[in-house]
Amino acid sequence: MFSLALHGAAKPPDSAIDQIMQARSAAGDFNGAALVARQGHILYERAFGLANLEWQIPNDLQTKFEIGSMTKQFTALLILQFVNDGRVHLDGHISDYLPYYRSEIGNRVTVTELLSHTSGIPNFLSTPGFLEGPASRASYTVRDFVEKYCSGDLDFEPGTKFEYSNSGYFLLGAILEQVSGESYEQLLKERIFGPLGMKNTGYTHFETVLPHRAAGYERSEAGLRNARYYDMSIPFAAGALYSTVEDLFLWDQALYGERLLPAQLRDLLFKPNLDNYGYGWGILIPKPGSPYAGESIAMHGGEIFGFQSVIQRIPAHKELIVLLENTDSPKLLDIALQIRVFWRTIPNVELSLVLPSANCSQMLDYRE
Questions:
Q1: For the domain that residue 80 is a member of, what is the CATH number?
Q2: How many domains does the chain fold into?
Q3: CB 300 within 8 A of CB 282
Q4: Which spans in 150-288 are helix H?
Q5: Where are the alpha helices (H) located in 158-259, listed in sequence order?
Q6: Can you tell me the distance from the alpha carbon of 348 to that of 61, in angstroms, rounded to the nearest whole number?
Q7: b vs e for 6-30, b when ≥16 Cβ sit within 10 Å of the residue's Cβ?
Q8: Rounded (10°) angle between helices 13-26 and 332-345
Q9: Which domain holds residue 258?
Q10: C-alpha radius of gyration, the chain, whole number
Q11: In a domain, 57, yes or no
């Protein structure tokens, strides 16, 4: 348990949040960058630990972290932009856009079902031996990967069940490229990153010399070790991006307006479908007695070799929590919960607050 007692005048929010983050860093639960914002203003941002352990280079606010499955929210928005342009239809089928796709499956699965993880298409990460064997280190064209790993027999009738599938978001990236004639990476630059000034966000390429790139580390019984190699043609539109906390603040702010999408389509990102998953976002409604009980929290996690990430948006209060980490910490959801507990107590002058570090059973965790 991590205890924080406030009596009389409450500590400034940035000071109290820093106390939480410093305690977590000292406990080995966090090595990365954190940002907390409210009403369009950054209340707190700070980096902890090392971007490169071997050279003892510290993380800072410009450090670029791989964000894994947080990529999906960008893919979902791109798809809705093409819906807005009339070039993709939510009730359109895979085979309407990918003529090479297996027709007996492609004619049954819609774009909506890909977005909401209700397609029934098996998750390629569930292929026995995929992550441990050479398949995860090989490079693929989009079509080759679709045909080899995203075209299996359906696990269930489309639209009847939620089952998280990276294959579905890989297929959405393939659709975007097929319809536009441009690469997924270029579409992101032209339609999201460029317009929003997200200069420190992009598609991860291991061969590229990228300033301020964090090295990823995995945890083992013997301690931290360099993350395993994973060819970035594989996560693609399901998990291949990197970013910074400040760029993700720009992203969050844009989602309150209509610069990227008209409100009617933008709001579909956060409309719960089966298992409270929208399009690229999990929708958490905390249980009674927990912080923000009954309110809607849009969130997503990201996990890719050596990196963990979490973004949580509380639209009713225009609050944002971003945690990016490069030592594969499993504690980010707990940390975000601690911050939310603190936020809900700010109006109280006299309080004694206990912040749990146990597993947050009411949280939804969507990760690659």
A1: 3.40.710.10
A2: 1
A3: yes
A4: 166-180, 184-188, 194-196, 236-239, 245-254, 263-266
A5: 166-180, 184-188, 194-196, 236-239, 245-254
A6: 31
A7: beeebeebeebbbebbebbbeeebb
A8: 150
A9: 2-219+229-355
A10: 20
A11: yes
Amino acid identity for residue 363 in this structure? M
Task: Provide the pLDDT for residue 245.
Answer: 98
Written as six digits, the tokens of 256 are 């309150």
Encode pLDDT of 43-68 as tens digits. 999 999 999 999 999 999 999 999 99
Is residue 82 in a domain? yes
Instruction: Output phi, psi for 42, to 5 deg.
Output: -75, 115
- Looking at residue 293, what is its pLDDT? 85
What is the rounded CA–CA span in Å between residue 329 and residue 365? Answer: 14
Task: Write the DSSP symbol of residue 305.
Answer: T
Residues for the chain: how many in total? 368
What pLDDT is stored for residue 287 in this prediction?
Answer: 85
SS3 58: strand
Q: Locate tokens 């598609």: which residue?
A: 203
What's the CA gap between 300 and 295, in Å, rounded?
Answer: 16
Domain annotation covers residue 160: yes
Residue 266 tokens, joined? 């933008």
d(CA 151, CA 103): 10
**Residue 88 domain-assigned (yes or no):** yes
Distance of CA 144 to the CA centre of its chain: 25
Low-confidence ranges of the chain (pLDDT < 70): 1-13, 346-368
- Position 286 scores a pLDDT of 85
Closest Cα to residue 192, out of 108, 136, 248? 248
Give the pLDDT of residue 292. Answer: 85
